[in-house]
Structures are given as structure tokens and as C-alpha cells.
């Protein structure tokens, strides 16, 4: 990159950014077990969470990140904890968990039992706490994309006459959720989504067709719903989306490059930025980035894996950023880990020290490339 291309960003997404979740600390894990056993009250658990969130937010600031998260420390799942609290959605103990590569999660499921809506949410208060301690840093909130309710929920019979009515309700519910987070002070919101990565996978699209779903139609419906959700967001609120191929105990679900969804993702979604996993061959090459034609769309390259602890070489990361810059303006590029470190409370198979080393490497490389 030439000198006249170097420009640090002072609004989200940032040159050095992060997806959101952090490894749950031993104290958090112990307190959650004590709460489940009835040994702690909800208030006592929340106090432990507050103290541990304070600690990791201070750590994020010290590392040099401009956006801080609460590490999703109050959640067991990156998606179910949010979706279960929507009007018309119910969580339940399923017969089995989500199947990953050679591994499955603990059992859990959600079902739509009534018309979907938004009427407040516990995570609004969670965000307010983060905002309070963020200080001069940007408080980043992460929630599952609306696509995930359709992708993961079963539908009670007779609730919806057709798909279009369901997706319209879903888009309206998320629009209300976005407005509520904005009212609470949120200016940086991320939608986490595995559905788009599944639409890149031949194996997964074959399974969708076996369920009677058409991947091409799903692309259109998901894009329409996301755009409906963000249509009236205020100009000073940035909304990004993270595309994930599965992240549980360092394993994964989907493989396949972004080509099958590239035009819809890069040209059809009215969001401000995309966090793209690019830490392994399963994500394919950078060629689909040629479809990035909006000059205001930021692409956050997930070049640092959260699935294992070995620290990536700074030079290797810089070379890959240069490769991506062949297809998209380098001024539209940012850097982050490829996913969170603990999409579920179990966490990935690396240490806390390795986690922080990786986030430091993000900041170090970003400053070297763009500042």
C-alpha cells in the first residue's frame, strides 16, 4: 500500500476490531455452575459477571482496541439467549444439539409458537452496563441476525399462513430491537449469522433442499428481512454482520468460499460492514471481493484464527491483506480475528493468554498497515 492510502478509522468498524465473544473466565464458569445448583442468587451471579466484565473491558482498552465488548459473558449461546426472549419464541430442551464436525453441542432448541415481535429484552440492560464502563471507547453489541430465527427454529403449526408474513414480522421485530438498542446508547451493533456460510456449502445446501428449502430463495428472503430491519436505523449508528462457518470447541460446520452469495452479500445488503472469516482454506479465496462495489462498505478480514492458540506471523497477515487489496480498495479493509473466542460458554481450545496475544496481534498489524 502506498502512503497516500494509509488512513486510520475513527468510526466502526475499526481497522483493528474483534467479533465479540471472549473465553469465559474460570470465575464466570464457576459462578454459573453455582447458580445452576441454586448456590447463588441471580443478583449474586450478575455481580460476579459485572466484576469479570469490568476486568476484560479494561484489558481490551489496554491492548488498544477502539471497540470493547462484554465478551458475551452473560450468555450460554451466541444466538439462543437473544432469540428466546423475542415475543412468540420459546426455548426448550431438545433431543439433541447442533452437529459440528465430529462433535455436537449440548441439547437446546427454539420454536416459534406465536406471532414474532419485540417488546423489550434483557440484553438492553446488559448493553447499558457495558456502555457505562466503556468510557471513551465504543461499546459494541452483538446479537444474532434475524436469519438465525428462521434457520434454527421449528414452527408451531398454524402460527403463520405463509413465509412472507413470518419474515415481515421478523423484520419488524428486529427494527424495534435496533431502535431499542439505539435508545440505550448503542452506536455499534453487529448481527451474527451462520446461514450465509451454509449457503456457500454444497453439503449444507443439499441438506436444505432435502428439507424443502430453496437456497436461492432463502438468500432473497434473508436479505429482504435484514434490509427491512436496518432500513430506519439512524445515520450515526453503524451495523455490521459477521459471517460464520460454525464455532464450537474449536470445530466447525460449513465449508465453501463466498462466491454463491457474493453478489447478494456485497451488493444487496444495506449494512455498513461485513466481518468475513478468512482463516482457513474452507473460506476460499479473496476473488468474491470483486463484487464489493459500494465505496462505503467496510470489509473486515478475519485472518487470525480463534480456533487454536498458535500466533499468526505479522508478515503473513500483511501479505494476505495485500492479496485482498487486489480485489477491493484497501481503504475499505479492516482486520479482526475470524470469529469470537467462545460462541458458546464452553469456549474454544486455547488459553486466555493466547486469546489476548491474538487480539494484540490484530492491533499491531492494523497500525503497521494503515496508520
From TrEMBL:
Q: Name one GO molecular function term.
A: methyltransferase activity
**Keywords, alphabetical:** Methyltransferase, Transferase
Tagged with keyword Transferase: yes
Q: Does the keyword Transport apply?
A: no
**InterPro entries, A to Z:** Met_Synth_C/arc, UROD/MetE-like_sf
Pfam families registered for this protein in UniProt: Meth_synt_2 (PF01717)
Q: Name one GO biological process term.
A: methylation
Q: Which Gene3D superfamilies does UniProt cross-reference here?
A: 3.20.20.210
In this protein, which residues make up the domain named Cobalamin-independent methionine synthase MetE C-terminal/archaeal? 18-366
What's the name of the protein?
Answer: 5-methyltetrahydropteroyltriglutamate--homocysteine methyltransferase
Amino acid at each position: 500500500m502506498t502512503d497516500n492510502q494509509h488512513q486510520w478509522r475513527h468510526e466502526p468498524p475499526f481497522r483493528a476490531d474483534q467479533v465479540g465473544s471472549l473465553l469465559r473466565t474460570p470465575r464466570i464458569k464457576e459462578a454459573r455452575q453455582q447458580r445452576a445448583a441454586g448456590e447463588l442468587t441471580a443478583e449474586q451471579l450478575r455481580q460476579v459477571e459485572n466484576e469479570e466484565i469490568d476486568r476484560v473491558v479494561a484489558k481490551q482498552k489496554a491492548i488498544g482496541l477502539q471497540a470493547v465488548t462484554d465478551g458475551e459473558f452473560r450468555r450460554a449461546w451466541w444466538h439462543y439467549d437473544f432469540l428466546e426472549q423475542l415475543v412468540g419464541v420459546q426455548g426448550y430442551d431438545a433431543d439433541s444439539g447442533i452437529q459440528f464436525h465430529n462433535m455436537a453441542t449440548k441439547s437446546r432448541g427454539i420454536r416459534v409458537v406465536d406471532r414474532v415481535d419485540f417488546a423489550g429484552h434483557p440484553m438492553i440492560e446488559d448493553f447499558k452496563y457495558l456502555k457505562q464502563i466503556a468510557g471513551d471507547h465504543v461499546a459494541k453489541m452483538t446479537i444474532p441476525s434475524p436469519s438465525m430465527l428462521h434457520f434454527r427454529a421449528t414452527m408451531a403449526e398454524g402460527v403463520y399462513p405463509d413465509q412472507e408474513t413470518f419474515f415481515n414480522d421478523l423484520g419488524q421485530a428486529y427494527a424495534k430491537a435496533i431502535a431499542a438498542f439505539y435508545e440505550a446508547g448503542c452506536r455499534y451493533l453487529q448481527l451474527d449469522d451462520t446461514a450465509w456460510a451454509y449457503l456457500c456449502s454444497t453439503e449444507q445446501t443439499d441438506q436444505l433442499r432435502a428439507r424443502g428449502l430453496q437456497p436461492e430463495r432463502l438468500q432473497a428472503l434473508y436479505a429482504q428481512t435484514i434490509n427491512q430491519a436496518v432500513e430506519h436505523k439512524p445515520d450515526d449508528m453503524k451495523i455490521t454482520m459477521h459471517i460464520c462457518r460454525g464455532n464450537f470447541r474449536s470445530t466447525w460446520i460449513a465449508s465453501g468460499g463466498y462466491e454463491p452469495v457474493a453478489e447478494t452479500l456485497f451488493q444487496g445488503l444495506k449494512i455498513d460492514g461485513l466481518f468475513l472469516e478468512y482463516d482457513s482454506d474452507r473460506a476460499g479465496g479473496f476473488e468474491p471481493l470483486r463484487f464489493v462495489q459500494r465505496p462505503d462498505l467496510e470489509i473486515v478480514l478475519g485472518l487470525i484464527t480463534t480456533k487454536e492458540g498458535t500466533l499468526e506471523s505479522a508478515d503473513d497477515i500483511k501479505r494476505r491483506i495485500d492479496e485482498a487489496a487486489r480485489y477491493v480498495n484497501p481503504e475499505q479493509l479492516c482486520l479482526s480475528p475470524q470469529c469470537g473466542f467462545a460462541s458458546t460458554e464452553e469456549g474454544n481450545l486455547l488459553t486466555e493468554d493466547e486469546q489476548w496475544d491474538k487480539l494484540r496481534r490484530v492491533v499491531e498489524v492494523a497500525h503497521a498497515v494503515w496508520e
